[in-house]
Amino acid sequence: MSASVMTVQQIRDAEAQVMETVPEATLMARAADAVAAECEMILAADPGRMADARVAVLVGSGHNGGDALLAGARLRHRGANVTALLVAGGVHLPSLGEARAAGVSIVDAAADAEAAAAVVATAHVVIDGIVGIGSSPDLRAPADALVATIPTSAAVVAVDIPSGLDADSAAADAAHVSATVTVTFTAPKACLAQEPASASAGRVIVAEVGIPRQ
Predict the structure, then answer these.
(1) Tell me, what CATH number does 32's domain have?
(2) Is residue 76 a part of any domain in this protein?
(3) Per the structure, how many domains does the chain have?
(4) What pLDDT score does 176 carry?
(5) How far apart are CA 83 and CA 105, in angstroms?
(6) pLDDT tens digits along 61-114
(7) How many angstroms separate the CA atoms of 97 and 103, rounded?
């Protein structure tokens, strides 16, 4: 991995500077484009798969979940069957609205755990948007149970970092997502570049979204 690692604080400081002139929605749209593009590449490896592809989006309450919802909306526009599973008490409302408008199915994972688990268990692609770089390690209910049902046949695309890892640490002791691909933004984080955490990141794509590297 050639790009230099940035800490969470460095990312936050750089984002704050850019958002003085660039709308947050623009940055989120760029992030979603990068995640959706990677999912499309995965599905394109199986000709004809996009039309019947089942995509499960694990959605947390923050901007990471918002990015995942927007990526799901893009995949729905391209013909995939997309279901967003809400795993937290809140959700990024503008992204939820865009996902609904695109035809993404929405399931409250806490209220209907059985339906949520069935969606994950039959998915071709799972987008991990549970938590982002500012989160503490570990997975909480109902996300932990859903992650445990991800089939080995599914490709897991993590948004920024695999949920459950500490972005600034190489530790991997707590429950976390094991990704096939991680689409991270601006620069790698420690958990993506240092063992043992990096073993759960899969292939790491560094997507430029307009935040300067430090």
Answers:
(1) 3.40.50.10260
(2) yes
(3) 1
(4) 97
(5) 5
(6) 999 999 999 999 999 999 999 999 999 989 999 999 999 999 999 999 999 999
(7) 10
**What CA–CA distance (Å, rounded) separates 178 from 197?**
9
What are the residues whose beta carbons fall under 8 Å from the beta carbon of 188, sequence distance 6 or more? 1, 3, 4, 5, 6, 204, 206
107 and 56 Cβ atoms separated by less than 8 Å: no
In a domain, 152, yes or no: yes
Tens of pLDDT along 119-177?
999 999 999 999 999 889 999 999 999 999 999 999 999 999 999 999 999 999 999 99
Domain that holds residue 114: 8-132+146-163+179-207
Residue 110 within any structural domain of the chain: yes
What is the β-pairing status of strands 105-108 and 81-86?
parallel
pTM over 0.70: yes
For residue 6 the two structure tokens come to 């940035």
Q: How confident is the model at residue 51 (pLDDT cuts 50, 70, 90)?
A: confident
In a domain, 128, yes or no: yes
Report cis status (omega within 30 of 0) of the bond before 142.
Answer: yes
State how far the Cα of 75 lies from the Cα of 72, in Å rounded to an integer. Answer: 5
